[in-house]
Amino acid sequence: MHLVTIRYPSGRPLDFPSGIKVSEAIAGFGPLERPLAAVLVNNELQSLDAHVLTNCAMEPITIDSAQGAFSYRRSLCFLAAIAARDLFPERDLVVGQAIGYGFYHRFQDGPIAEADIAALERRMRELVAEDIPVAMQWWSYEEALAYFRDHGQEDTLLLLELTNEPKIALNECAGFRDLHVTPLVPSTGVLRTFELRPYDEGFLLRYPRKEKPDEIPAFEDDPLLYKITDDSRRRSGVLGVDSVGALNRLAAPKRIKDYITVAESLMTKTVAEIADQVAARRDTVKVVLIAGPSSSGKTTTSKKLSIQLRVLGFEPMVIGLDDYFVDRTRTPRDENGEFDFECLEALDVEYLNEQLLQLFAGEEVELPAFDFKTGERKPSGKRLRLGERTILIMEGIHGLNDRLTPRIPRDQKFKIYVSALTQINLDEHNRISTTDNRLIRRMVRDNQFRGRSARDTIRMWPSVQRGERLHIFPFQNGADAALNSALDYELGVLKVYAEPLLRSVKPMDPEYCEAKRLLNFLAFFAPIPAQYVPQDSLVREFIGESSFKY
Question: Which of 16, 215, 427, 440 meets the CB 3.0–4.6 Å disulfide criterion with 20?
Fold first, then answer.
């Protein structure tokens, strides 16, 4: 009998017959404070239905970890799909964007009544009480196609057109099957903490924070985020592409080029509409502040907005907030003792406001320049005086926070929030995370222009996200306008650049789990040649060869 050795976090190795199921080997973890969602096997995320075929290190992934919380949330969506199948078999439930620690769900054919939402929640809780196993099963390609065809899941059928694998991994529970995109929790009994809340024409399936997996946080609405994502969803529907499978069908060069042309034109139209809003306040607005999370496309947005403002008779001038950093000796440090360049205190707010007031009073100022090598701010030699038609544009993470410009009256500021809010789904029940979209953008750009590896980008991404939660997201609803910078075709383009970077991350690397997950995700996309991307596209900010200078 061939044996495999499993090493546990305690350091204790145990031998088992080769092919043992993970569920039979987890006893080696000993007692756990929280339920298991999945396990790491040699840094690869696996469900408890997986089989161990080689010597490995195995680690528990509980629901209070980042990966466990991700699995928990996906599993809740799976649970909602089962309950919807049971109660409303003729209706198609579709998962959408994240809002207020919840996923927005709607039915394709129209609104859902509050009484039906309540019934859906009751059915979900019944399924939880029954503690039904959630199994990962392998089906033949032909069988999987037949199942999804019989159950009317057209988006999933389209998604499977890209693959020619002889077997397809599906999740199964209570006779319901769905595509296996990521490991789900081992049984419905784990999913005890959730709530359904009516929202617009559908409902929010709300989930706990990973830090407090037994509590549903107080609801904080995000109407701005919902509006721009809903507008974008409707736009995607008009273009006839609302899923990855539908995008993949645009494989012929002419079709994909025509689609890209229309998508880019819509983006230009949206920026032009924001410029019109600025122009409508020309009597008071003196500065446009653009903010958004990492890799949201703030820089290109500022350049595209400048063009549209010129069309309207303005003379836009861009001021870089990075030049207002305090000297390195005054830069605050984070809890790890590292320089914290993302906190507001890293900027010389007083000096910035002093210069803005001077400019608005008609005075000439000399703009600063920050030397990142020496960590010191110096005079730039560039002098600026505002003319009658001049409008300032400032882009940076703190733009929406009034503490950045406390001496500037509110009516003199026009705030724009930019984020990449992906609207196409993998299929009806599997959404595309907007965070994943930005992470892949960042990974490609970091490699193209900063020489960083995928490992480097993945390693620092949690820190980036912490900064976003502190400095950007709390202020997004104070924006005067919002722009969804996601282009539905872009992941097909980014795939070509990202996949080789992700394959460079090896199984012994701690970042391998995330790299593998992203590779599995990108496998659903047909590649789109970069040559089809216009030179003034926002996508060029990440892949290069832009007509804009950065």
Answer: 16
